[in-house]
Specification:
About 45% of the residues lie in helices and about 10% in strands.
């Protein structure tokens, strides 16, 4: 039986009890005792302190996001993208507005943390032919906003239980892109490339066979896209009960899924023609038009029902309300990409050769030849640098042999026939000026 003269070590109040078990905290060795009233007061203080810190943290986040919003209005974002991305005006506007609204939504949620009033997240689906600038646009966007950005190949993902990467690997990639900082991770951008490769093979009709890399992956992505706590192990570690895990809340992560969606234009064309007579007299038979202009016209008319027909499940489409479409790049656009953007391939090679005291010049006909080759390869802007690399290989190999100032002129014959570029030795011995941005 405990001593009836026992007092609380904190408040000094005498305790009335029948047994030592009536005292919530009691150490018989030291006599340290805490009464129930003190425990209640301590708990109340801790709850208030947690509440205060929670609101201070939310206010800090809201202030940080407010600063991002203030200096990154949609027109500012688009003007920045214009420096790097040629054409794709509509896509740049859609992305600018989508990112701006995403940050406004986060700010609103932080400022109204105590209420149930929330703004739903607007993830983005971006589609367009290969080499049209999808990944480049998003990469530059992340640099402007100074937020973590990670690209994950959706075609490598498989349903849980099958050989391959689980869907959580997308968040894990962002975690490492953020320098293993959970706070930064929870405000980043995840780009799921090749998303069209996980469309279910049967389109609108369910398949009775296993489909580990398609519909099952889409089902696994649902909660992540909407906003949930994702748990994953460190890179290289297998999942098992004893493995330490990292938890990341995806509520404020902007998901952008993209791909070429080859054939989506045909689905759109079929929907547009639906209801028109296809047989009989008086049918207006349209000539088959596979031109880029026709493709660009159709791609901008993609609707959710077309994506369902393609094989994207309705639940996923509901979590990707923003549809962003990119056009095929024509020869003129590829010509502009070679020289106009800040990081244009021609400017990059001019800077490289300037370090060897060489002035590099491309004739207009040579650049047009490069653009034509890229069109023939059907890889868009992706192949431009490779074509120039092939053309410049011998020059870049021989240039370092001498330190004399020279001018190298690349002609059309260099691109088409593999001819040697013109090399002119300059009289001026002064080092060449650095190439302007």
């Amino acid at each position: 039986m405990a001593d009836n003269n026992m007092r609380c070590t904190i408040c000094g109040r005498r305790l009335k009890m029948q047994s030592q078990y009536d005292v919530p905290i009691y150490d018989p060795n030291t006599g340290f005792t805490v009464c129930r009233n003190c425990i209640k007061e301590i708990n109340h203080y801790l709850e208030e302190e947690d509440h205060r810190r929670f609101h201070e943290l939310k206010k800090t986040f809201a202030d940080k996001i407010g600063a991002v919003i203030e200096k990154n209005k949609p027109h500012v974002i688009k003007e920045y993208l214009d420096q790097f991305i040629i054409k794709q005006e509509r896509a740049k506007k859609i992305l600018s507005v989508a990112v701006y609204n995403h940050y406004k939504r986060m700010k609103y949620d932080y400022e109204h943390a105590d209420s149930d009033d929330e703004i739903d997240k607007s993830n983005v689906i971006i589609m367009g032919p290969t080499g049209c600038g999808k990944t480049a646009m998003l990469s530059h966007l992340s640099k402007l906003l100074d937020i973590p950005f990670a690209v994950t190949d959706a075609s490598s993902l498989t349903e849980a239980g099958f050989v391959g990467a689980d869907v959580e690997v997308a968040v894990r990639n962002l975690y490492y892109a953020a320098g293993q900082n959970i706070e930064k991770t929870e405000h980043g951008i995840i780009y799921l490339d090749e998303f069209d490769k996980i469309a279910r093979k049967s389109g609108e009709n369910n398949s009775i066979t296993a489909d580990p890399g398609h519909e099952g992956v889409q089902q696994g992505l649902l909660k992540m896209l909407e906003g949930s706590v994702v748990e994953f192990t460190a890179r290289g570690q297998r999942k098992h009960p004893e493995a330490p895990t990292i938890k990341v809340n995806t509520k404020n992560i902007l998901f952008i899924v993209g791909g070429a969606f080859v054939g989506i234009d045909k689905i759109v064309a079929q929907r547009i023609r639906k209801g028109e007579a296809s047989l009989g007299f008086g049918v207006d038979i349209q000539p088959k038009d596979e031109s880029d202009d026709k493709f660009n016209e159709l791609i901008h008319q993609v609707r959710p029902e077309d994506l369902m027909k393609y094989g994207i499940i309705p639940e996923i489409i509901g979590r990707l309300p923003v549809i962003c479409t990119l056009e095929t790049l024509d020869e003129h656009s590829l010509f502009r990409i070679l020289t106009e953007p800040k990081n244009a391939p021609v400017k990059q090679y001019q800077k490289l050769l300037a370090m060897d005291n060489v002035q590099l010049e491309f004739e207009e006909a040579a650049l047009l030849a490069v653009a034509k080759k890229a069109i023939e390869r059907k890889t868009g802007a992706r192949s431009l640098k490779g074509i120039i690399e092939d053309t410049m290989l011998d020059v870049m190999f021989d240039i370092p042999k001498s330190e004399l100032p020279r001018k190298v002129i690349v002609t059309e014959e260099c691109v088409n026939d593999g001819a040697e570029p013109k090399v002119i030795f300059l009289e001026d011995e002064e080092p060449l000026a650095e190439v302007a941005n």
